[in-house]
């Protein structure tokens, strides 16, 4: 007997990458996580593919087919084609990659890629803390400091996908330069693992 088809979801972080096989109702049936750079810097795409393969195998062993793949990455994404932008400071090897097309070809299933915190905001809105709300803001301090905004039941992407990047709001105008081109961004102070430099300055 074939059980319900599942969706594979991957959250690529600057430190850890997590993958799961989930039902359409959001129940996680298989979960696995690895260090994003376990195979060395520059190898994250291969690690993502191996992780997806492993989770798919576990889902299939339980009698589930896999219907589609969704990936959240820590950087700007053109979600219509699943191409990652050029600024991916924590996983730079993903910059410019057409990851959705690569995964669709590799696994023979439709694949979608979006910014990780946009995906998180949609997830919380559909299945989690924001279920039933028309608008919400998700703050996600991790290796960086991401944020996602749902306004009147629509995800706010903004110019160049920066609509929800509250982490790049300047909080100290004469603060240290940030990779985004600004200075003293919230992300430099408020992320989960502040750099030694920031800690030393505070
Ligand atoms: Zn910044």
Short description:
With 202 residues, this protein is an alpha+beta fold. 25% of the residues lie in helices and 29% in strands. Mean pLDDT is 89; it is low at 194-202.
Q: What do these coordinates show?
A:
The protein is of the alpha+beta class and 202 residues long. The chain folds into two domains: 3-118, ATPase, nucleotide binding domain (Nucleotidyltransferase, domain 5), CATH 3.30.420.40; 129-193, Nucleotidyltransferase, domain 5, CATH 3.30.420. Helix content is 25%, strand content 29%. The strands form three sheets. The chain has a five-stranded mixed beta sheet with strand order 3-2-1-4-7. The longest helix is centred in the first third of the chain and has 18 residues, at 44-61. The radius of gyration is 17 Å and the shape is globular. Mean pLDDT is 89; it is low at 194-202. It binds zinc ion.
CATH level 1 class label of the largest domain: Alpha Beta
End-to-end gap:
60 Å
Number of domains: 2
Mean pLDDT: 89
Kindly report the name of the CATH homologous superfamily of the largest domain.
ATPase, nucleotide binding domain
* Sequence of strands across the biggest β-sheet: 3-2-1-4-7
SSE series: EEEHEEEHEHEEEHH
Return the CATH topology of the largest domain: Nucleotidyltransferase, domain 5
* Fraction of residues in H or I helices: 10-25%
Could you say which small molecules are bound to this protein? zinc ion
Structural class computed from helices and strand pairing: alpha+beta
Radius of gyration: 17 Å
Task: Please tally the helical runs, counting DSSP H or I stretches of 4 or more residues.
Answer: 5
**Would you identify the regions where 5 or more consecutive residues have pLDDT less than 50?**
194-202
Which CATH architecture of the largest domain?
Answer: 2-Layer Sandwich
Main sheet makeup: 5 strands, mixed
**Overall 3D geometry?**
globular
Number of strands: 10
């Amino acid at each position: 007997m074939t059980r319900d088809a599942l969706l594979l979801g991957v959250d690529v972080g600057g430190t850890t990458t997590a993958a799961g096989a989930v039902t359409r109702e959001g129940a996680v049936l298989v979960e696995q996580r690895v260090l994003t750079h376990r195979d060395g810097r520059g190898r994250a795409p291969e690690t993502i593919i191996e992780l997806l393969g492993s989770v798919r195998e576990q889902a299939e062993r339980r009698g589930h087919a896999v219907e589609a793949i969704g990936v959240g990455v820590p950087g700007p994404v053109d979600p219509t084609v699943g191409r990652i932008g050029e600024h991916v400071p924590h996983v730079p090897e993903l910059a410019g990659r057409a990851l959705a097309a690569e995964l669709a070809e590799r696994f023979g299933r439709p694949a979608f890629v979006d910014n990780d915190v946009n995906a998180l905001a949609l997830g919380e809105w559909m299945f989690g803390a924001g279920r039933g709300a028309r608008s919400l803001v998700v703050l996600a301090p991790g290796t960086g400091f991401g944020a996602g905004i749902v306004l009147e039941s629509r995800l706010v992407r903004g110019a160049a996908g920066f609509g929800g990047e509250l982490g790049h709001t300047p909080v100290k105008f004469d603060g240290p330069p940030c990779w985004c081109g600004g200075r003293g961004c919230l992300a430099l102070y408020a992320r989960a693992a502040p750099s030694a430099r920031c800690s030393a300055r505070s």
